[in-house]
Design goal:
The protein is α/β, with parallel strands linked by helices and 617 residues long. It is built from 19 helices and 24 strands. Helix 17 links the parallel strand 20 and strand 21. Bound molecules: 5-amino-5-deoxy-1-O-phosphono-D-mannitol.
């Protein structure tokens, strides 16, 4: 949570900082602030609420031209989202140091007590302000900013990315990273810092990921990286593949609407170069896992949170079916703290769009310590998860800006299917001819996803018409079950209404008691065409809820000649291999939530209380 940006160079610092904050606003939007150093010294502006409030504040109280500065967009942890608690925080009586923070300083209470005892006055309720005062005091003692900064960060516990500037050393931005993301952008005579590459991708595509417990001393023409213990670090540069325009709305009403429309491309790009027409899968990125490692896997545990965990649920069905390796799906935060059984033959598959979700990072670190290999499925280059894993399958969804995940999910599901086919071939668990047939079906999916997007008028209208719904239930079986849970999550986070996703078979074990006259239920109906199809069972479930007054909306396969008799409204999606159908059936649910939320006048890109990337536990 929280987005941070830093800049030193000849450009207008304010423009760079505000542009970076605009791209990072998805990380938190409780408040925003900037500090710059100019010929007249340190200046700070900060404001509660979204970035636009800060921009209005700067318009009313302009900042001087400057060539160095830091900016922050906040997701509140310690202290309410007020002007006073907004970052940057100013340190020292002389008020010459400015600091921003992403994360939580766990020992702030003791440190604050120490400062209060020494007479320091605090202007906020945040943990972050402690670091600002400590660095200012240490600088007064040592007279050297990097030394002062290092001495302080070594005292901090918890998770933090810190950026600091000081009026007396106006050519340098200091940064430190522990358990929280930080990336450097390399320019020509200018350099950038950001929580992720989106902060600076419009200025440079050359980047360096900062490692755990490292300090960056950033000047316009020079970058030095050291460990907290002072050892020099040789940086490894990488090229950002995201295009700056991919992170803009491009004429769409919201980032979410654009990202929904991007989904055929996200699926195609994730498959590209990996799946051949004979069904063989090449995953060169997973060279970190040897053929021996793959043969030895006796169990896969998939860890993730939120929407990414539903991608894991879908992948479980495919991996078990095709490779016959047992798969367990775990919410990262539950897995990490329940003493799970992990052995060197367990493969951990960690799925995360951002690659910075702290719960997932903690789960994978725990598993690595227990001797397991970790394979990441991740959308963000240079992310911590990618760097800390033994191998990575990058999803190529491009930057996802809306807080509600859409295209990242379909890319994760696609990567899960690829992994399933890859493992099936590696283990000889599915005949080659069948793998070739499945491969062809999977290659068809980008086109089918595009077709779904063309036929959504009905569900759009339903979303608008149901703006006053108090509760919506979702039912599905097999891969339709995680899709149902995802539909419910989308509605909760975007429209703030009660929604639950159930396995349709579970209905009679309790949830059917929720059904009363007029209760909307969206049902994911499986294909009729399979030999062992679950279609008749789901039709029975529909009849059971209809008999009790439910208003049924079905998502069904084209050509389904029964569902129309039982559902009030049917959204048809193209024919597909049953197990791959999740890529299609999830899309009407995303659009339904988008429309319903928009009809309620809510902000679909930045729903209340949320942040895109949850970098605290
Ligand atoms: O970046 P990650 O994929 O690790 O994020 C995981 C969840 O926080 C995320 O999917 C969240 O549930 C979304 N807001 C759902 O739309």
């Amino acid at each position: 949570m929280c987005g941070i940006v830093g800049y030193v160079g000849p450009k207008s610092t304010l423009e760079v900082l505000l542009g970076g904050l605009r791209r990072l606003e998805y990380r938190g939007y409780d408040s925003a602030g900037v500090s710059v150093i100019s010929g007249t010294g340190l200046d700070t502006r900060k404001k509660a609420g979204k970035l636009d409030n800060l921009i209005a504040e700067i318009t009313n109280h302009p900042l001087p031209d400057a060539h160095i500065g830091i900016g922050h967009t906040r997701w509140a942890t310690h202290g309410a989202p007020t002007d006073g608690n907004a970052h940057p925080h100013i340190g020292g009586e002389a008020a010459k140091l400015s600091l921003i923070h992403n994360g939580i300083i766990e020992n702030f209470y003791e440190l604050k007590a120490e400062l209060v005892e020494a007479g320091t006055k605090f202007a906020s309720e945040t943990d972050s302000e402690v670091a600002a005062h400590l660095v200012a005091a240490e600088f007064e003692k040592t007279g050297d900013l990097p030394t002062a900064f290092t001495n302080v960060v070594k005292r901090l516990r918890g998770a933090f990315t810190l950026l600091a500037i000081h009026e007396d050393q106006p050519d340098v931005v200091l940064a430190a990273r522990r358990n929280s993301p930080l990336v450097i952008g390399l320019g020509d005579g200018e350099n950038f810092l950001g929580s992720d590459v989106a902060a600076f991708v419009e200025h440079t595509k050359r980047a360096i990921s900062v490692g755990q417990d490292e300090i960056v001393i950033l000047r316009a023409g020079e970058i030095e990286i050291r460990t907290f213990d002072g050892a020099p670090v040789t940086p490894v540069e990488f090229e950002v593949s995201w295009d700056a325009s991919a992170a803009s709305k491009g004429g769409w009403s919201s980032f979410m609407a654009k990202e929904i429309a991007d989904q055929p491309q996200a699926v195609a790009d994730t498959l590209m170069g990996r799946l051949a027409s004979d069904g063989s899968v090449r995953l060169s990125e997973i060279d970190g896992l040897s053929a021996e490692d793959i043969k030895n896997i006796d169990r896969i545990i998939m860890v993730a949170c939120g929407t990414a965990s539903y991608a894991c649920d879908v992948a479980k069905y495919a991996i078990e079916k095709f490779s016959r390796i047992p798969v367990q799906v775990e919410l990262s935060h539950e897995f990490r703290y329940r003493d799970p059984i992990v052995t060197p033959n367990t493969l951990i598959v960690a799925v995360s769009q951002s690659g910075e979700t702290m719960d997932t990072l903690m789960a994978t670190r725990y598993a690595k310590e227990a001797g397991a290999k970790v394979l990441a499925i991740c959308n963000t280059q240079g992310a911590t998860l990618a760097r800390e894993s033994d191998a990575v399958i990058y999803t190529h969804a491009g930057p996802e800006v809306a807080v509600a995940s859409t295209k990242a999910l379909v890319a994760q599901i696609t990567a899960g299917y690829l992994l399933a086919l890859f493992l099936a071939a590696g283990r000889g668990a599915t005949p080659k001819a069948e793998l070739a047939r499945l491969g062809k079906e999977l290659l068809q999916m980008p086109e089918s996803v595009a077709e779904v997007l063309d036929g959504l008028e009905g569900i759009r209208q339903l979303g608008k018409d149901m703006a006053n719904a108090k509760s919506v239930l979702f039912l599905g079986r097999n891969v339709g079950f995680p899709v149902a849970m995802e539909g419910a999550l989308k509605l909760k986070e975007l429209a703030y209404i009660h929604a639950e996703g159930f396995a349709a078979g579970e209905l009679k074990h309790g949830p059917i008691a929720l059904i009363e006259e007029g209760q909307p239920v969206i049902v994911i109906v499986p294909s009729q065409r399979d030999e062992d199809s679950l279609h008749p069972k789901v039709i029975s479930n529909i009849q059971e809820i209809r008999a009790r007054g439910a208003r049924v909306i079905a998502i069904a396969e084209e050509g389904d000649n029964q569902v129309g008799d039982y559902a009030e409204h049917v959204v048809f999606v193209p024919k597909a291999e049953s197990i791959f159908a999740s890529l299609l059936t999830v899309i009407p649910l995303q659009v339904f939530a988008l429309e319903l939320s928009t009809a309620k006048g809510l902000d679909v890109d930045q729903p209340r209380n949320l942040a895109k990337s949850v970098t605290v536990e």
